[in-house]
């Protein structure tokens, strides 16, 4: 009567073992060949070869260590310079005069521009395109539409900052297109 026994599956270690054995055997053969050639050298050649190998190892290791050290030192220096620049810029934020740009623009001939052109330029700089701006006596009439109430309000605020007085202002939102429709009359 035969007894039934479970077959054991070969484990991966035993499956890879011939490859590992072949590799270690090949490395062992190289080591043996190298050692036998080393032994065949005269003592003077062995000493010269040992000194040469030691010099090469020290030179390669020393130069590699030095170059890594220099790269790390340069990187740290660059980082510290960038951090210093960042904090310097942050410290200068209080020194920025927001009216300096307006003053520079007025010195560049902005006052010589017609009032309608100044209003139109302000609206364009604020993100309002295709505004209808017409000079009307001492004032300027303007009309535009924009999908963002924030941008429309900011544009009107910039006009007010530049000294324009609103004599008439109408803002309505078109329910179909969600566009803010603005009509205003301003005087300087």
From the structure above, extract its key features.
188 residues, alpha+beta, 4-stranded antiparallel β-sheet, 5 helices, 4 strands
Secondary-structure map with pairings?
Layout: H1 12-40, H2 43-91, H3 98-110, H4 115-125, E1 132-136, E2 139-146, H5 149-161, E3 165-173, E4 180-187
Antiparallel strand pairs: 1-2, 2-4, 3-4
Biggest sheet architecture: 4 strands, antiparallel
User: What is the strand tally?
Assistant: 4
Low-confidence stretches: none
Q: In order across it, which strands form the biggest sheet?
A: 1-2-4-3
Q: Residue share in helices?
A: 55-70%
The value of Rg in angstroms is: 42 Å
Q: Could you tell me the strand content as a percent range?
A: 15-25%
Mean pLDDT: 83
Query: Tally the helices: what do you get?
Result: 5
Order of helices and strands: HHHHEEHEE
**SS class:** alpha+beta
User: How far is the N terminus from the C terminus?
Assistant: 117 Å
Outline: elongated
């Amino acid at each position: 009567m035969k007894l039934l026994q479970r077959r054991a599956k070969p484990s991966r270690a035993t499956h890879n073992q011939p490859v590992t054995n072949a590799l270690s055997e090949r490395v062992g053969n190289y080591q043996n060949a190298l050692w036998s050639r080393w032994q065949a050298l005269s003592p003077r050649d062995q000493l010269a070869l040992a000194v040469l190998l030691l010099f090469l190892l020290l030179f390669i290791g020393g130069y590699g260590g030095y170059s890594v050290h220099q790269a790390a030192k340069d990187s740290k220096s660059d980082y510290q310079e960038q951090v210093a620049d960042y904090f310097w810029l942050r410290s200068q934020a209080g020194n920025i005069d927001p009216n300096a740009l307006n003053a520079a623009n007025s010195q560049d001939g902005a006052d010589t521009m017609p009032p309608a052109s100044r209003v139109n330029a302000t609206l364009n700089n604020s993100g309002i395109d295709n505004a209808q701006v017409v000079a009307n006596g001492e004032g300027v009439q303007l009309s535009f539409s924009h999908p963002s109430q924030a941008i429309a309000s900011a544009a009107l605020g910039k006009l007010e900052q530049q000294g324009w007085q609103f004599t008439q202002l109408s803002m309505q939102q078109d329910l179909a297109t969600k566009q803010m429709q603005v009509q205003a009359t301003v005087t300087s």
